[in-house]
């Protein structure tokens, strides 16, 4: 079994910073891609940032230059450093990991962590 535990969300003023973490545990053979998604009230879930097993990163246009995704393979953990936060960044943030448990690779989601940015 695999478990993902997210942490780091909270309430912050505009211009502030937060760092999200997502740690995977369990019977993990390897982890391929890792990503962060967010979903604001009344909106669809959207990709915020992703990082491949080789360290290649991609970002949504709305967060480029402000957010940084990184990973620690030894800890099976992905991070999202969010700087210069804006009220429009308010959402529930979810991590998504492509985890190989046995012969198959599956997508696993974190439980979500609320990020609220006040103006």
Model description:
Strands 2, 4, 5, 6, 9, 10 and 11 form a 7-stranded mixed β-sheet that branches. By secondary structure, this protein is mainly beta. A hairpin with a 4-residue loop joins β9 (91-100) and β10. The mean pLDDT is 96. It is built from no helices and 11 strands. The N and C termini lie far apart (41 Å).
Question: Which overall shape is indicated by the principal axes computed on the Cα atoms?
Answer: elongated
**Count of separate DSSP helical elements:** 0
Helix content: under 10%
In N-to-C order, the SSE pattern is EEEEEEEEEEE
- The overall average pLDDT, rounded, is 96
Runs with pLDDT <50, length 5+?
A: none
Q: C-alpha Rg, in Å?
A: 14 Å
For the biggest sheet, the summary is: 7 strands, mixed
Structural class, from helix and strand content? mainly beta
The tally of strands reads 11
β-strand percent reads over 45%
From the N-terminal CA to the C-terminal CA, the straight-line distance is: 41 Å
What is the secondary structure topology, with strand pairs?
Layout: E1 2-7, E2 10-13, E3 18-26, E4 30-39, E5 46-51, E6 57-59, E7 67-72, E8 77-82, E9 91-100, E10 105-109, E11 113-118
Summarize this entry quickly.
With 119 residues, the chain is an all-beta fold. The chain has no helices and eleven strands.
């Amino acid at each position: 079994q695999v478990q993902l535990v997210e942490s780091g969300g909270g309430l912050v003023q505009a211009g502030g910073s937060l760092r999200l973490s997502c740690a995977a545990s369990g019977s993990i053979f390897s982890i391929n891609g890792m990503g962060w998604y967010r979903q604001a009230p009344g909106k669809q879930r959207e990709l915020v940032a992703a990082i491949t097993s080789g360290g290649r990163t991609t970002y949504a246009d709305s967060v480029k230059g402000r957010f940084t995704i990184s990973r620690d393979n030894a800890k099976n953990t992905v991070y999202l450093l969010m700087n210069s936060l804006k009220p429009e960044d308010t959402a529930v943030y979810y991590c998504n990991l492509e985890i190989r448990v046995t012969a198959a690779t599956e997508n696993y989601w974190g439980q979500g962590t609320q990020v609220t940015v006040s103006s």
